[in-house]
Amino acid sequence: MTTPKPLLNIENLHVTFSTRRGPVEAVRGISLSLAEGETLGIVGESGSGKSVTGFAMTRLLDASGKISGGRINFRDRDITKMTSASLREMHGSAMAMIFQNPRGALNPIRAIGQQIADAILAHRKISASEARAQSLELLRAVKIRDPEKRMNAYPHELSGGMCQRVMIAMAISSNPALLIADEPTTGLDVTTQKVVMDLLASIAAERGMATILITHDLGLAARYCRRVVVMEQGRLVEEADALTLFRSPQHSYTKRLVAASPTATSRVEDLVSDDDKLLVPAIPLPPPPKPAHGTPPLLEVLNLVKRFEDGTVGVANFSMAIAPGESVGLVGESGSGKSTTSRMICRLLDQTEGTINFSGQSISHIPAREFHRAPQRREIQIVFQDPNDSLNPRFNAFDCIAHPLIRLLGMRNGAALKQRVAECAHRVGLPADLLERFPHQLSGGQKARIGIARAIACRPKLLVLDEPTAALDVSVQAVVLQLLDRLRREDNLAFLFVSHDLNVVRMMCQRTIVLRNGAIVEQGESHALFDNPQTDYTRELVDAVPHIEMIAAGKMAAGA
Amino acid sequence: MGLMYSKQMLGAAAALAFFTAAVPAKAQTRAETLRYVTGAAVNTLDPNIPGSTREAFAVSLSTYDRLVSFGRKQLNGKWVFDLDTIRGELAESFDVSPDGLKITFKLRKDATFQDGSPVTAEDVKWSLDRAVTAKILGKAQLLTGSLTDASQFKVIDPTTFEVTLPQPDKLALPNLATVYPIIINSKVAKAHATEEDPWAQAWLKENTAGSGAFIIEQFKPGEQVILKRNDAWNRGPDGKQAFFKRLIVQSVPEPATRANLVEKGDADIVIDLQASDAQALEAKGKLQVISTPQYNALTFISMNNQMAPFDKPDVRRAVAYALPYDDMFKAALFGRGAPLFGATWADSKPPSGAFPIPQPVKLDLEKAKAYLKAAGYPDGFSTTFSFNVGQAATAEPMAALLKESLAKIGIKVDIQKLPDAQMSTQITEKKLPFFTEGVVAWLPSTDYFYRNFYTGNQRWNYSSIDNAELTAVAQKARFEADKAKYEADGKVLNAMNFDLMPQIPLWQPSQDAVMASNLTGYTYQFHRQVDYRDLSRK
Amino acid sequence: MSSATLQHAAFILRGNPITGIAAIGASLLIFVGIFGPWIVPYDPIASNVQNALMPPSAAHWAGTDQLGRDVFSRIIVAAQLDLAIAVSAVGISFALGAVIGALCGYSGGKLDRAVGRFVDVLMAFPLFVLAMAMVAALGNRVENIVIATAIINLPFYIRFARAEVNVRRNLGWVEAARACGDSHVSVVLRFLLPNVLPAMVVQMSLNLGWAIINAAGLSFIGLGVKPPTPEWGIMVAEGARFISTGKWWLVAFPGLALMLAVLCFNLLGDGLRDILDPRQRT
Amino acid sequence: MTTLGATAIRAARRFASSLPALFGVLIFTFLLMRVLPGDPAVFFASGPNSGKEEIETIRKQMGLDKPVPQQLFLYLYDVGRGNLGRSLMTGQNVTKDLRERLPASLELTFSALLIALVLAIPLGVLAALKPGSLIDHGVRLFCALGVCVPTFVSGLLLIYIFYYLFGVSPDPTGRVDIFTTLPPAHTGFLLIDFALAGDFDGWWAAFKQLILPACTMALFVIAPLARITRASMLASLGSDFVRTARSVGLSWWRIIVTYALRNAILPVITIAGIVFSTMLGANVLVEKVFSWPGVASYALDALLSSDYAPVQGFVLLMASVFVIVNLVVDVLYGIADPRISIG
C-alpha cells in the first residue's frame, strides 16, 4: 500500500567533491522519490555516483564532499539543512544504512552485542540490560545461530555473511522508516549473497521499511526491487519498474548495460552492443578449434596436493587435463583452493605432492624458485585478478608489456621490441598513445588489457586467468571477455579460467570443474553441468545466481 | 584514604606559592651543615682500595686519623699544606733518633675510636702492617718513605710505638701523614676479616672503623656521603672538635650546575668548577674564591722520547718554541694558575733546584723552525696529539691552539680525544706520541718528581725518557741529607731537563675553591681536596 | 616524477605551507652545507685569543668563542659536517636496512627468522649506550660516529622495509614479474624495493634530524668529532657549559642552527608523508 | 576469560622467544666491552705511585688475566647465578648498584612517559579531528620543536630558568632534597613511598625534584606519540566502523572516544612501549644534567672508565626491561584488541 505523500523526495541533488584537481561534481542533479515501504534499486557502474547519492541522503559524506545544490525532503524535512544534532537524532531512528564490506563496518574491538546495544541506546532511554535484551532479540531476528553466544563475539570471529546480519540488526534496531543498503553483498560468496539478500528483503517487508538497494549488479536489483533507476556519471538516465527496464531499456546506456550483463543464455558475441565493438580490431574469427582425439593433452595434472606450513590442506588430490586450445573453467567459492591450484599450475607456488605435465614433459619437478629459467615459462602465462594491483606502479604500459619480452625472449630495447609491444597493444585494443602512461593514469579496463597484452606477449600456449574480470564493471567485463575469447581462437590458446561467476564461466569455457574445500566436486561439459547439476553443492551455486529471467518467472522481491 | 590523598593534592597547589618559605625551617641545621658538591664521586670508605677516587681520600681524612698530619703555611697570602711541618694527630709526640733510623710515637691517651674503645699501639701496628702488606694502594706509597715491611713496626707499650728505617729517609714521616696509612680499629676490623681477606678489605670498603672527626651516617657510592660530627674528636690543630655538625658530600656531574648551586648558596664549597665559571663567580663578588696554584702539581705536554720523530731532542725543542703559551694559558685556564714558561734564566742556568720552576721558553717560530731543520725535518711532519675526555674543558682549547701554531712550522697535528681509561692504557703501553697530562706529588720534592716522572720504563714516565745520567743524579739526591748539595743536584736535574726537553711543562693550574663568603679556614691540601676539618663558618 | 605527482605535491603544499617552508629551509641548509666554506666571513678555525668570548657585534654576528673564533663562521661551516654525518649515517642504515628487510619480508622463512632474531638483539640494546660504546671502542672519528649511528638505526629500517615488502609480496604485479621470468632476487631488488622507497624516504627525512641530535649527544659526553673541527653538537655541548656565566651566544646560536636543521628535516618528513600517503591522494 | 588465557599463552610464547635475544645481548656486550681499547686495570690503578704490580693485582681480581673465552664462560656462569660482578668505580656489587639505581630511572621514565602521553594523546586527537587546520599545524610545530632540541640543552635551560633565575625549582641534585628524610623503601619509587608513608612534605619535595627532568624527557618523546595518535586517529575516524557509528546516530562523544579513540590507541600502546624502552636507555644525558642517580648515568661513567661489569650489567638490565615492556605491551594489546588473541 502506498501513501499519497512520498517518504523521501530528492529534488535536483548535486554533490561536489573538492580534490586536488579542483571541485568535481559526483552527482549532477538527480531527482527521486520513494514511498513508504517501497523498494527501489539504484544501479550503476563505478563512478556513476550511486553510492554518493546514498551517502548524501544520509548526510554521511566524507569531509571533502558537499551537497552543493538541491533538496532532500524526508518526511517533509529538508535533510540538507538539518543541524548535526537533529541529524544524529534522525540517523538510525528514521533512516539507517548498511554498507559494503560488513566486517570493516563493525568496530573490531567491541563485542557485537554491545555495538547493537550502543545503537539502541543512542535513541532510547532504557537501561543497559534492557538494551542487551533487545540486542539479543535483534540477533534472533536476523537469524544468527546461538545468539546468546554471539552477543559477546567480536567481528573477526564471524564470517562476512554473519557480520552483514549484525549490521542489519544494528540498522533496524530503532525501526527506521528507510533502509539504504549500499552494495550489501558485494564481496560475499554467491550462496551467502542470496541468504543475506533474502533476509534483508523479508525483514524490510515484515517491518514495512522502505528500502533503497544500491548495486552494480543488474540481476540483484532486478530480483529484489520493484522499481529500478539507472545512474551514469552522476546523472539519472532511466527509471522504470524492473521488468520493463530489462525487457525494453530505453536509454542507450541502459541498453548497453543490459546487453553486457551475462545471463545463463548469453553468448560472448552478444555481450557488447555495436558501438563498443569498434574498440576491438575487427579480424574475422576462425572457427573454434576442435581438439583432435588422441592428441596428448597440453596440460596434465595428476593428484596435485598442497599442504601449507600450518598443516591446513589447500588442495587435495586434484587431477585434470587441458587439450591444446581448450578452455576449462575452475569454479568455487572463496577458500575452495582455486587460486592455489592455478598458481601451482603456473609454477608460482610449489606443490606438496603430485605431477604436472606440460606438452608431455614434467614441469612439477622444477621448483617454483627456478622456473623462471625453464623454457616452459613463456608457454604458461597468467592474467591476474585485480588489474589495479597487477601492474607495477612504477612501470608505464610499455614497460609492462615489454617486460616478458625482455626477460623471456631476450629482446633488447630497440625498434624490434617497440614494434612487438605495439603489436601486442594493438591485439588487445590498447591505443598506442596510452603506452606512455602509468597505471594510475589508466582506467580499469585499460589496465586489464595491459595485463592481457603482457600475458600473451610471448605467445604462450596456456593462459591461466585468475578471475580476470572480477574487479571490472560489467560493460568493461564484456569487452574484456570478448577480447579473451577472440585471442584464444586466434592463437589456439588453452585457457584455465578461474572464476566465481558461473554465467561467465558457462559462456567462456567448454568444460568446467567445480571445486570445494580443495577437492573436485563435479566436472563436465559446461552447459550440461550448469543446466543439470549432479551434486547439491553445484545446484546451490547455480540457484544462487540472480537472473534477470527470474523477474519474468515472477520471482519478485518482498518476502520471496 | 583516597579522600585524604585528594585533599593533599589540593594542598599541593597552594603549597606552590609558599614552598620556598618551607626551607628556612631547616635553616638552623643548615648553618651547621657543610654541603660540598663535586663532579666526581666517593666510591669507597677505605682509601686503600684500588680505584679510590680523590673524593674518597677526602672523606677518609675526616673519618680516620693518622699518626701525624701536615701543618699549614701561607704561600702568597693563601693557606697551603706544609710538608715541612709535621704535627701529631693520634701521636701526642714523636721522636726521631739522631741517626734517623728510629721514630718513636707516643700515642694520645684520650684518643678513642668512634665506637668508644681506646686507640692503642696494637691498632697502629695492625693498621700499618696492613698498609705495607696487603695488596692495596698504601704499599706503593709507603715504599717511597722506606716503609716496606711489617717488621719495621714495633709496639713498645699500649701507648708507645716505634718505626725502624733501613736508612734515614726524610720522606718517612711525611708518608705517614698521607691518605693511606689510616689507623683502623683492629678489633673491629679483625672481626670482619676472613681467610681470603685477612685485612678486611671488603668490609672496610663499605664501613669505617676509625677515630676520625666525622662519622659516616649514609654512604651511597657514586651519589653522596652524609657524615655527622664525632663530638669526642679533639685532634684538630687547636685541640677542638670539627666545626660542622653535619657534612654532605654530593656528586653533581654537571659543572654548570655546581656553579649554580654554590652561587645560590645551596652548596657551601666547590673546588672543581670550570675556570670560566670560577672567573665569573669571582667577578660577581658575592662569593669567596680562593685560587691557589697547585704547587705540588703541574700540567705538561709530553712527547714520546722513544718514538720518531720525538726521539730527536731538536724536534722536542722545536715544539717547545712553537707553542703559543700565552694564548693557551688564557684560553684554557683563563689565566688561573702559575705559568711555567716565559722565564729568563741568568746565564742560561736554572735559578733554583726546586721542581717545577718556570722554563725559559716562549713562542719563537723562527727558533722552532731552525730546530726542526736541525733535526732533519725542515718540512715538518704529521702526528697525533691526545688528551682525555675528562680534561676536555682545558685540553680542548689548548689542543686547538697547539694545532694551529704547530701548523705554522709544518707540523700537522691530528687531535684525538680519548676516554679516560683508554688514555691511561695507551700511556702505560707507551703508544701515544704526543699528549698532555698532569701530575701531582703528594710529597713534592725535586728528586721525587724526577724519579717518578722522568726515569724507568714505567707508566708515570710519560715521556719515556731514558737518560742514565739523569737517573743517577735523581737517585743520589733521594737520600741526600745536605740541603745545599740537594739544591745543587736539583739545579743539575733542572738544567738537564731543559736541555733534553723530554716534556714541556706548561703551568700549575689553580685550585679554585669557590665558597660561601662566611666560610673560613680553607687550606690547599696535598691531595688536592678540601680537608673538611679545616673549615668553619663565621 | 610524473606531473601528476608534482600536481599532488602542489596541492598538499597549498594546504600545508609549513612543509613548503621546511623544504626551503632544507634546501638552504644543503646550499650552506656545500658552499659554507666559501661564504663565511672568517676562518672558522683561526684563533684570536685576545678577542675571546666577545658578545655578538657587527663584526662577529654571533660573537666569539673561548679561542676568539667567529661563532657565526663556525656554525656555517659546521653545516657541512653535520649534514655529512647525518646523511651518510642514515644512508648506510637505509641502504642496508632496505635490502635486508626487503629480502626478509619477501622470502619469509628461515632467513626472516634469523634476521628477526638479530634485529631483536639490536633492539633490546639501550641504543644510545650502544652508540657510546661503539664510538668509545672504535675511537671518536667521524667515520665511527657515522657507523655507530647507522647501526643503532639499522633495526628500524629492516623492520620497516620488511613490513612494507611483506604487504606487497602477494600483489599481482609481484607474481606477474615472476611469471615474466624474473627470479626472486630480481623481483625484490628491481620491483619491490623501488616501490617501498618513497615510504622509506619519509622515514629517512625524520631520521636525519634524529641523527644530528644523536651526534650532538655523543659530543656532550665527549665522544663527538675531534676538535677543532666545527660541529653543532660540540659547539652546543661546549656552549651549554657557559650558560651559567652568561655567555649565552655560545649555546644560543649553534643551538638555533641545530634546532632549525632538525626542525626542517622533521617538518619535511611530515610533509612528505602527507604527499606520499595514499589515503590523502584521492 | 578465553581471551585472557590466550593472551597469557601468547605473552609466554613471546617471552620464551625473546630469551635468545637476551642471550645474544649478553654475549655481544661482553665482546664489545673486550674490544674497548681501555684497560680497566690500568685506569683504576691510578694512585700516584701505582706500578705494574698493582695493575696485575687488579687484572687478576677482575679475571682479566684469563683468556677471553674462559672469561666469557665464567661471566655466563656468574650471570646464571645472579652475580653481575663488581664495579671498580663504586666498589660495589653491580647487582646492588643497579637495584638501588633502577627505581630512580624507572620513576623518572614513567613520569616522563606519563607526562608525554597526557599531552600527546589529546594533542594528537585534536589534530586529527581537524586535519589541515591551524590546530593541526600548531600541534605539528609544537611536537617538531620538542624533538629538535637535544635533551641536554633543554635540561640545562630548564635548570637555568626555573632554578637559577626564578628559584621556583629545588636544586637539581638528585631525587630528593638532601635535607628531607627518606621514606621507608617499599617500591623504591619515592612518590609512591612518600604517599604510603603519608609524608606529604616529602612527596612534594620529591615531586619538585622530578618534574624538571621528567618534562625534559617528555618534551623529546611527545612528537612520536602525538604523531602516531594523530595518524591512527585519522585512520580510525575515516574508517568504515566510525561511519557505521554515525549512521546509527551515536553521540559525538561515543563516536570519538568509544569507537575512534579506543581503536586508535592500539598503535599508540606499541609506540609507547618502544618509547619507554628507548627512553630508559637514552636518558643518560638527562640523568647527567640533573645529577639523577639512575642506571644510565652509572653506565656512562662505567663505560668511560672501561669498567666492564657495570656496563654489561646495565645492558643486560635494559634488555630485560625491554623484554618485559614488550610483554606488558603484548598483554595490554591482547586485552585491548580481541583480534590478537587468535593470532
Straight-line distance between termini of chain B? 48 Å
Count of separate DSSP helical elements of chain C: 10
**Highest CATH level, the class of chain C:** Mainly Alpha
**Would you count the extended β strands of chain C for me?**
0
By DSSP, the count of extended strands of chain B is 20
**In CATH's first tier, which class of the largest domain in chain B applies?**
Alpha Beta
Proportion of helical residues of chain C: over 70%
For the biggest sheet of chain B, the summary is: 8 strands, mixed
Which class best fits the helix and strand makeup of chain C?
mainly alpha
% residues in beta strands of chain C: under 5%
Which fold does the CATH topology of chain C refer to?
A: MetI-like fold
What level of helicity do the residues of chain B show? 25-40%
- Oligomerization status of the protein chains: heterotetramer
Query: How many discrete structural domains of chain B?
Result: 3
Task: Return Rg of chain B in Å.
Answer: 25 Å
Average pLDDT of chain B: 89
Point out poorly predicted stretches of chain C.
Answer: 278-282
pLDDT averaged over residues of chain C: 84
Structural class by SSE content of chain B:
alpha+beta
List the helices and strands and how they pair.
The complex is a heterotetramer of chains A (560), B (538), C (282) and D (343).
Chain B: H1 2-22, H2 27-31, E1 33-38, H3 54-63, E2 68-75, E3 78-88, E4 91-96, E5 102-107, H4 121-133, H5 137-143, E6 153-157, E7 160-164, H6 172-176, H7 186-191, H8 201-206, E8 214-220, E9 224-229, E10 246-251, H9 255-264, E11 269-270, H10 275-284, E12 288-293, E13 297-303, H11 313-321, H12 325-333, E14 337-339, H13 365-374, E15 382-388, H14 392-407, E16 412-418, H15 420-428, E17 434-440, H16 446-454, H17 468-478, H18 483-500, E18 503-515, E19 519-520, E20 536-537
Parallel strand pairs in B: 1-10, 15-16, 15-17
Antiparallel strand pairs in B: 2-3, 4-5, 5-7, 6-7, 8-9, 9-10, 11-18, 12-18, 13-17, 13-18, 14-18, 19-20
Helix pairs in contact in B: 11-13, 12-14, 16-17, 17-18
Chain C: H1 3-15, H2 17-39, H3 71-107, H4 109-124, H5 127-138, H6 142-168, H7 172-179, H8 184-220, H9 232-240, H10 249-276
Chain D: H1 2-35, H2 40-44, H3 52-62, H4 68-80, H5 94-129, H6 134-147, H7 151-165, H8 190-197, H9 200-237, H10 240-247, H11 252-282, H12 284-289, H13 295-304, H14 308-336
Description:
The complex is a heterotetramer of chains A (560), B (538), C (282) and D (343). Chain A has 560 residues and is of the alpha/beta class. Helix content of chain A is 35%, strand content 23%. Among the domains of chain A are: 6-270, Rossmann fold (3-Layer(aba) Sandwich), CATH 3.40.50; 387-459, no CATH class. Chain A has 21 helices and 20 strands. In chain A, β11 (299-307) and β12 (313-322) form a beta hairpin. In chain A, α4 crosses α5 (128-141) and α16 (444-456) packs parallel to α17. Mean pLDDT of chain A is 86; it is low at 275-284 and 552-560. By secondary structure, chain B is of the alpha+beta class. Chain B has 3 domains: 31-64 and 212-287 and 516-538, D-Maltodextrin-Binding Protein, domain 2, CATH 3.40.190.10; 65-71 and 82-186, Dipeptide-binding Protein, domain 1; 297-510, Roll (Dipeptide-binding Protein, domain 3), CATH 3.10.105.10. Chain C is mostly helical and 282 residues long. Helix content of chain C is 74%, strand content 0%. Chain C is built from 10 helices and no strands. In chain C, α5 crosses α6 (142-168) and α6 (142-168) packs antiparallel against α8. Chain C starts with a helix and ends in a 6-residue tail after the last helix. Chain D has 343 residues and is an all-alpha fold. Chain D has a domain at 94-304: MetI-like (MetI-like fold, Orthogonal Bundle), CATH 1.10.3720.10. Chain D has helices at 2-35, 40-44, 52-62, 68-80, 94-129, 134-147, 151-165, 190-197, 200-237, 240-247, 252-282, 284-289, 295-304, 308-336. In chain D, α5 (94-129) runs antiparallel to α11 (252-282), α6 crosses α9 (200-237) and α11 (252-282) runs antiparallel to α14 (308-336). Chain D is globular, with a radius of gyration of 24 Å. The chains are: A alpha/beta (560), B alpha+beta (538), C mainly alpha (282), D mainly alpha (343). At the B-D interface, α1, α5, β10, α9 and α15 of B face α2, α3, α7, α9 and α13 of D.
